[in-house]
Design brief:
The protein is an alpha/beta fold. The chain has one domain: Rossmann fold. Helices cover 56% and strands 7% of the residues. Bound molecules: nicotinic acid adenine dinucleotide and adenosine-5'-triphosphate (ATP). Catalyzes the ATP-dependent amidation of deamido-NAD to form NAD. Uses ammonia as a nitrogen source.
């Protein structure tokens, strides 16, 4: 067993303790004047599943709203979102952002045509607007679902899934997320499907990033990875610094 594998075995051994630490953190975040609960965008993927499951453990089903936004998503993700809701007793509501996106896109494109990535980012920012619409009105917080691996390379949409009020999974790599997901009873179909932001058809995280989550997580956990991908990972880390900081101001 190498150092990376040993680390994962160790994490597995202490996963129950880690889960309780994250539950306590969520309770602390929501323990403020005028705050009632949490809103989470549910995509059918593992990151939002783990985040929602932790929030339900911390606050109970009554105080957590999962929001499924079907526009341009695949049926498999809808099915997984429903399976998740049943497995973890999550209140799941649906908001169709399709008509809003369809109206907004031509208005923006009258100024400048958008490529597929920018269109995907625009959908992600409409999802953020939706989650804040619900949270604002109820005195709830929006939970961030970005894991440590994604945050390191800036693999999130600025002002979209990269914008929220607190993050209960920020220190977990993708590999640790899978271990915690099993502990939380997240359905296996969600844990094993290829990670994708689904910003366009056929997109997978690993194909777009140009390296695998194993390459990235090995670097984060052991400081070592395949030499041919290290440079790209560090390049993406450097150019995404602005996403991990508050905006500069004077
Ligand atoms: N140096 C700098 N200082 C300050 N701001 C800077 C900047 N460089 C760009 N910016 C700003 O940031 C913008 C670019 O950032 P952004 O809009 O995020 O766009 P960008 O980083 O180009 O794209 C987002 C990436 O995240 C991926 N993603 C999105 C959503 C979910 C997931 C997931 O798997 O969970 C992944 C997506 O596939 C794509 O690769 C620029 O338009 C500019 O406004
Ligand atoms: N169709 C959707 N409905 C609701 N929320 C969504 C939807 N798509 C994305 N989101 C929100 O944006 C976040 C990032 O999306 P993305 O699909 O990249 O990640 P994920 O599904 O959680 O995990 P993975 O990276 O493993 O696919 C999600 O965690 C979720 O909170």
């Amino acid at each position: 067993m190498d150092r990376f594998e040993e680390h994962l075995v160790q994490y597995q051994a202490q996963v129950k303790e880690d889960l309780e630490k994250r539950v306590a953190f969520i309770r602390q975040q929501v323990d403020g004047p005028g705050l009632g609960g949490v809103v989470v965008g549910i995509s059918g993927g593992i990151d939002s599943a783990v985040t929602a499951a932790l929030c339900v453990r911390a606050l109970g089903s009554e105080r957590v709203i999962g929001v499924w936004m079907p526009a341009y998503s695949l049926p498999v993700h809808e099915e997984d979102s429903r399976k998740l809701a049943e497995a973890i007793q999550l209140q799941l509501v649906t908001v169709d952002i399709g008509p809003a996106y369809d109206a907004l896109l031509p208005a923006i494109e009258a100024v400048q045509p958008l490529d597929e990535k920018t269109k995907g980012n625009t959908k992600a920012r409409l999802r953020m607007t939706t989650l804040y619409g619900i949270a604002n009105q109820k005195g709830y917080l929006v939970a961030d679902t970005c894991n440590r691996s994604e945050i390191y390379v800036g693999y999130m949409t600025k002002g979209g899934d990269g914008l929220a009020d607190f993050n209960p999974v920020a220190s977990l790599t993708k590999h640790e997320m899978r271990i915690l997901a099993r502990e939380l009873g997240v359905p296996e179909s969600i844990i094993t499907k290829a990670p994708s932001a689904d910003l366009w058809e056929g997109q997978t995280d690993e194909q777009e990033m140009g390296f695998t989550y194993e390459d990235l997580d090995r670097l984060l956990i052991t400081g070592q990875t395949r030499p041919e991908v290290r440079e790209r990972i560090e390049y993406l880390h450097k150019i995404s610094e602005h996403k991990r900081k508050l905006m500069p101001g004077i």
